Amino acid sequence: MSTEHPTTQVAAWRALTFGVGFSFGFTVLIWIAGSRLDAFDLRPDRQVAFWYPWVTNAPTFLTRLSAWGLYAAHQLTVWGLIWYAQSKKMKYSSSLSRINIIALFANAVFITLHFVQTHVFFDGLAVDVPEQSSQWSVILLLVIVLLMENQRRGLFFGQKVKGSVMKESARALRKYHGYYFAWATIYTFWYHPMVSTPGHLVGFFYIFLLMLQGSLFFTRMHVNKWWMVTQEVLVLIHGTLVALSNAPNLWQMFCFGFAGLFVVTQMHGLGLSRFVRGVFLAAYIIGVLCVFSDVGFGKIHQVLWIPITDYVAVFVIAFLVWGTMKLFSLFKGRGLPGSDTGDEQCLS
Fold first, then answer.
1. 3 state DSSP class of 197
2. How confident is the model over 34-58, as pLDDT tens digits?
């Protein structure tokens, strides 16, 4: 029989409000303290693709131990909370459970520890791993959201992609995606030192919100459609700002690429009227025409790069998950994992 973990009287929406305020406040703290990091001697900028310059020129054993040790502690803590919550077969509630409060507190503690670690040692995981690993961890997180939400809002202009592959893979991901989402978020968080460039500030604010979302598992706010799509759309702002700073000729790709995902897929899960959706679509088309009339229509193909990549990745992931499930069922002689009809939408 399912058991529900004890809840408190703290409403999930209040926790969300406080969490957004904490995220904004801590981002401001990173900005205020950013000048203190100028004393660190960083490796030279080589002006090559995916070169991440925010790494010290001579990292030490203690530098690496601080970054990887705290990352591992953070990761294992959150994974442990996910496992505990699922093992208790918790039900959705409008209030926080004790495990939600522990998760919120744990993330706040590790956010603070990373701030201290940056100002003592500076380096994050970037000292040992390439930037592409951080970027793609979050890209795949957003792609998995597209796949999971296909059954509710559709994938192309409100139309669902049907079939057992899409349906069964989405069910499995709704049940187990929390482990991947926690890894993608925490890994990206510890990859970057808490420096105060505009791109880093927006990125950390975004990551804080993803951690907040992960801490609100099994609450109604966790599956609130407006809160979820806000997190999807924020990547538009982050990606565009980073591109303006580091690749000014590609900002259109990020801006209109992620905006394209919104008009093609994401806005159709909000219950908007046909007129409002038409206004968004018209604004998008007008924006594209205005910008590329200036930079040249020969570059207009840039708006398709991100949507095509993400939609192709949706189907690739769906087949990989479905194929893994089939292999699992063959070896175990059981039903497909995640194919039960219970409440599986948890923990991102």
1. coil
2. 999 999 999 887 666 667 889 999 9
The count of other CB atoms within 10 Å of the CB of residue 37 is 17
Of 85, 103, 93, which is closest to residue 10 (Cα–Cα)?
93
Contact status, residue 338 vs residue 168, Cβ threshold 8 Å: yes
* Residue 307: half-sphere exposure toward Cβ, Cα within 13 Å: 19
Average pLDDT over residues 268-281: 95
* pLDDT the model gives residue 5: 52
> With 0-12 CB in 10 A as exposed, 13-18 as middle and 19+ as buried, what is 7?
buried
**109-125: burial string, b at 16+ Cβ within 10 Å, e else:** ebbeebbebbeebbbbb
Residue 192 to residues 142, 144, 148, 270, 313: CA-CA distances in angstroms?
Answer: 19, 23, 28, 33, 25
Confidence of residue 244 (pLDDT cuts 50, 70, 90): confident
Q: How far apart are CA 318 and CA 341, in angstroms?
A: 19
Report the DSSP beta bridge partners of residue 219: 93
328 close to 285: Cβ distance less than 8 angstroms: no
- What percent of the chain lies above the pLDDT cut of 90? 68
Full DSSP string of 43-74: PPP---TT----SBSS--HHHHHHHHHHHHHH
Closest CA to 19 of 227, 240, 200, 237: 227
Query: 340 or 122: whose pLDDT is higher?
Result: 122
Please state, in angstroms and rounded to a whole number, the distance separating the CA atoms of residues 110 and 347.
19
* Bridge partners (DSSP) listed for residue 56: 42
Measured over all CA atoms, what is the biggest interatomic distance in the chain, rounded to whole angstroms? 63
Q: 297: left (phi > 0), else alpha (psi -120 to 50), else beta?
A: alpha
Cβ-based burial of 11 (10 A; exposed 0-12, middle 13-18, buried ≥19): middle
What's the token pair of residue 325?
């499930």
CA separation (Å) from 237 to 146, 232, 269, 292? 19, 10, 20, 19
Q: How far apart are CA 80 and CA 97, in angstroms?
A: 16
Residue with tokens 């970027």: 135
Query: Which residue intervals of 216-224 are DSSP H helices?
Result: none
